[in-house]
From TrEMBL:
The keyword Protease does not apply. InterPro entries: Aldolase_TIM, Ribul_P_3_epim, Ribul_P_3_epim-like, RibuloseP-bd_barrel. PANTHER family: RIBULOSE-5-PHOSPHATE-3-EPIMERASE. Its cofactor is a divalent metal cation; Fe(2+); Co(2+); Mn(2+). This is Ribulose-phosphate 3-epimerase. It is an enzyme of class 5 (isomerase). The keyword Protease does not apply. The gene is rpe. GO terms for cellular component: cytoplasm.
Length: 218
């Protein structure tokens, strides 16, 4: 199956947001990755609903929303209304994860779960068949531009095995510190979607960087 690239808008130029959204529209990118941070679950605040609304207005590709917030149940319907196609919540932020996942699907979105670097894959054993996406964090969530944690490869293989062992059709997404230095090894381990923030937006030619990354992994 085709491997996907999801540029993370966190690294875009917010003074030129429409320009950067159009750049992604006209590139070989597959998804928009949108990081919502609340300053409580993670030690940083990114942006919220009005900014997502502005992005949605111009974006013409799948909108993959990564919620780094406590008690995400409060906003599930709002994110559906704002145009999220995939809604990912953190395992560490959900006491009743099964209920949250069902609510995301009931709102018409695909459901994802993100795992912090210290959270083992095994916690997903009893929910994997309900998931459309698992996002393995390859940095501690909260900031763009951090270095990739090498232990991620092992987790990707473990998750790949777990998925193969069940009837799950869930995709494996990697988020944090992704670049052309680790992309191939991540795909070999079983990744399906690579999120890339700084690597794309801080490069001289983001369109070309996306295109090269797509070529490397396909
Ligand atoms: C980190 C976010 C990431 C971030 C990735 O908390 O979830 O999506 O934007 O940025 P880079 O690719 O720069 O590590
Ligand atoms: Zn993210």
């Amino acid at each position: 199956m085709e491997k996907l690239v999801a540029p993370s808008i966190l690294a875009a130029d917010f003074g030129n947001l429409q320009r950067d959204v159009e750049m992604v529209n006209n590139s070989k990118a597959d998804w928009f990755h949108i990081d919502i941070m609340d300053g409580v679950f993670v030690p940083n605040i990114s942006f919220g609903m009005p900014v997502l609304k502005a992005i949605s207005k111009h974006a013409n590709k799948t909108i993959d929303v990564h919620l780094m917030i406590v008690d995400p149940d409060r906003y599930i319907n709002t994110f559906a209304e704002l145009g999220a196609d995939i809604l990912t919540v953190h395992y560490e932020a959900c006491t009743h994860l099964h209920r949250t996942i069902q609510a995301i699907k009931a709102a018409g979105m695909k459901a994802g779960v993100a795992l912090n670097p210290h959270t083992p894959i095994a916690v997903l054993e009893d929910i994997i068949e309900d998931l459309d996406l698992v996002c393995i964090m390859s940095v501690n969530p909260g900031f763009g531009g951090q270095s990739f944690i090498e232990n991620t490869y092992k987790k990707v293989s473990q998750l790949k095995h777990l998925i193969e062992f069940t009837s799950s059709k869930c995709k494996i997404e990697i988020d944090g510190g992704v670049s052309d230095q680790n992309a191939n090894k991540l795909i070999e381990a079983g990744a399906d979607v690579l999120v890339a923030g700084s690597f794309v937006f801080k490069s001289d030619n983001p369109t070309e960087t996306i295109s090269n990354l797509k070529d490397i992994i396909n």
